[in-house]
Amino acid sequence: MNSKQINFKNHSKALNELIFEAKDLQGVSRRTVHSWKQSGVLDDKRDPNALRRWNYFSAIDIIWMGILNEMKQLRFTHSEMKACKEVLFEMIIAEDKKEYPALEYYTFLVLLYNQPIYIVISYDNGIDAIWMLDEKDYFLKLKSGEIENHTALSLHKAVKINLNPVYKLPVFNETAGLTNEEAKALSLIRSKDFRNIKITKKDGEISIIESTERIDGTEEIAKLLTEGKYQNIEIKQINGKIVSAHRTTRTHFKK
Q1: Second label for 122, Cα 20 to 30 Å away, from 88, 99, 143, 250?
Q2: Mind listing the pLDDT tens digit for each residue in 73-82?
């Protein structure tokens, strides 16, 4: 593995893009997702200021929910899942000298090098240790007796089962080299919420992104007007009744 030559930053950006929808989840119901969010097992990444709080997920979210689903089948409690979450999302320093959540870093190893990784949970009157181990370290700990009663979940399997229907063949170079502004523009383009998107560049760099979203329903339009969550709004009426609105928001990037 020649990971010293790798800068994981671009791969991290690809793994954390919120581009997947609930339909991309494998064997996980919306009710279960809601339950995980309520208990703190899964972070709620929806924009609290958005009029419509759609659920969008990243590749890491998809993988983590796949692992949670495995734990659910094994009858892990929410408190046990949270204990695993604390370890799996703890920041570690990778070979490129940057910090990443442990689950994210080991997912790099699975996707880039096809390296088997195990999430090992050992017990002694409850969970007493949680590791993320490659194949060599896992069997060394078994041989030494450091690991006895335990559950082992395959991260390799979680990635294959949960990402294959989404990515087919993962290509991380898609967002490699993009600036934050370009990544933001790509995210908006992929979103289904916007009617049109206008990008303004200055000196070769994106300076303004202007996006227009359609809003239906009088209640949502009234809420939009009351809260003032727009910079420009166009309202459509039929027979004197408001039927839809288009709100425009602008994001300015300061250099």
Answers
A1: 99
A2: 999 999 999 9
pLDDT in tens, 191-242: 656 767 778 887 877 878 887 877 777 777 777 777 776 667 777 777 777 7
Mean per-residue pLDDT of the chain: 81
User: Do 174 and 147 touch, CB atoms closer than 8 A?
Assistant: no
Say if pTM beats, i.e. exceeds, 0.70: no
Choose among 63, 46, 64, 49: nearest CA to 191: 46
- Distance CA(39)–CA(79), nearest Å, equals 8
What is the helix (H) or strand (E) element at residue 219, kind and residue range? helix 218-227
Contact 118, 132 (CB under 8 A): yes
Beta carbons within 10 angstroms of residue 210's beta carbon: 18
Contact predicate 106/117, CB 8 Å: yes
The closest alpha carbon to 95, from 5, 186, 226, 25, belongs to 5
For residues 140 and 147, what is the distance between their CA atoms, to the nearest angstrom?
9
Rounded-to-integer distance, Cα 190 and Cα 61, Å: 18
CA distance 64 to 21: 15
Letter string b/e over residues 30-62, b meaning 16 or more CB atoms within 10 A of that residue's CB? eebbeebeeeebbeeeeeeeebeeebbbbbbbb
Predicted confidence (pLDDT) at residue 47 exceeds the cutoff of 50: yes
Tell me how far apart the alpha carbons of residues 158 and 245 are, in angstroms, rounded to a whole number. 42
